[in-house]
Structures are given as C-alpha cells and as structure tokens.
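Here comes an entry:

___
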Amino acid sequence: MSLSALYDYHTVLAMGIAVLCLAYMLSSTCRFYVRLVTYHAVIFMCAAYLILLACIKPGNINNYFLAKYCGVPLFWLVSPILQVGVRVRGLEHLYKCSSPYIIACNHQSSLDLYPLFRILPPRTVTLAKKALLYVPVFGQAAWLIQTVFIDRKDHDTTMQTFNKVIDDMKKKKFNLWVFPEGTRNFKHDGLLPFKKGAFHLAVKAQIPIIPIVIAPYSDFYIYNEKKLDRELRITYRYCNKGTVPK
C-alpha cells in the first residue's frame, strides 16, 4: 500500500469517526442504536468468553457463576457509552436464604441480563425456552453453564424435565431462576399472566419461591420511540423470606 493510499485511508477513517461522534452527540436516535449495539456486543463477547471457560468443565453447576465475572467487568468498561447504573435493594435478604430455592423475576427485555449478572447468587441456574438453545454463541454458552431448557409445545417432556430438576436441586443444592411471565413484557406496564410450571415445581419440591422485581423501564427505554436516553437505574426488591406454596 502506497503512502498516499495509507494517508487517504486514515483520513477517511478519522472523518468517519468524527461524523459518528457528532451524530452521537446531536441525534438521540444515533445514541439509541450505539448504546443498544454496544450492549448486545458485550453480551456476545461475554458468551464467547464463557464458552472457552465452561469447556473446561462443561455442565458444571458453578459455570453459571462465571457469567457474573465475565459480564460485570465488560459492562464496566463500556459504561461511559451505556451509562448503565444498577441500584439494588434488599440484597442482604437473598443471600441469607438457604439453597435450594426458586427465584421468580419479571422479564421486560434483553436489558435484564445485565442486572441478572450483577445479582446472580452462587449455584444458581436459569430456566429458559428451548428456542434460545439455537441462538448462535449465546445458546451454546447457555448450554455449557447448565441452563435448564424446556419445550413449551411438549408438555410431557417439560414435566419430565421438571421432575429431573427437582431431584437435582435437592441432591446438588442449587437454585433456579425463572421468568414466570414466560416471555418478555414489551409494554413494561404491570405483569403478564404467569405460567404455572415453576409454581408446580415449587409445590412438588416444597422449596421456597423468592420474588424479585425489576422496576419498569418505560421512563427511559422505549424501543419503538428509539428512546434510551438517560442513565439506567434498576431496582430489585426481595421479600425477607421465601415462601413455600401449598
């Protein structure tokens, strides 16, 4: 490559970066997409790194905790762009609970992953729909860290999975994180009707359910309006003691 061509390349690159920075400062839509792309890029990098670590001991119950130590530092590095902050209330109550237990949490968007990384207790895995298993990189990372996948369309297989989870939770003393709404609540207004599966599991196993609430995103994150224009503040609230359903 000639010197003049190299100079032109650097000039074009510098101009492109300058235009992007200017658009970021002046356009709320540009800021929205830059922040969203950055967020999902961090999730992707975390999943890829997690695959490398989890391959050492695939399926190990402690692999899930690696997600916390992969995700939190990465999010901290890009926090000047994301402007992400997490405010937690009642964390001390969660860590006083004895395993096994089920954590029931509302689900609004993929943004939930960041606070999940921040709050995830030791020896905790999540319950997810089987379709996520086929998402490139993310699905493979989830499988390696022992995510429990269920097929909503196959009731018999789902019940077999629940029975196995009950036995494993009692023997290995791990916890299960579930989103009882079953899907993302894009309206951020109240809660969707709960699916019954996780509650049947708690009744059958006679283990406590600990509710966690993520405050609504609607005041700062509205996808259709391309709104993500203020610092993210997510509040968790825990009950003092998990309750066993009857």
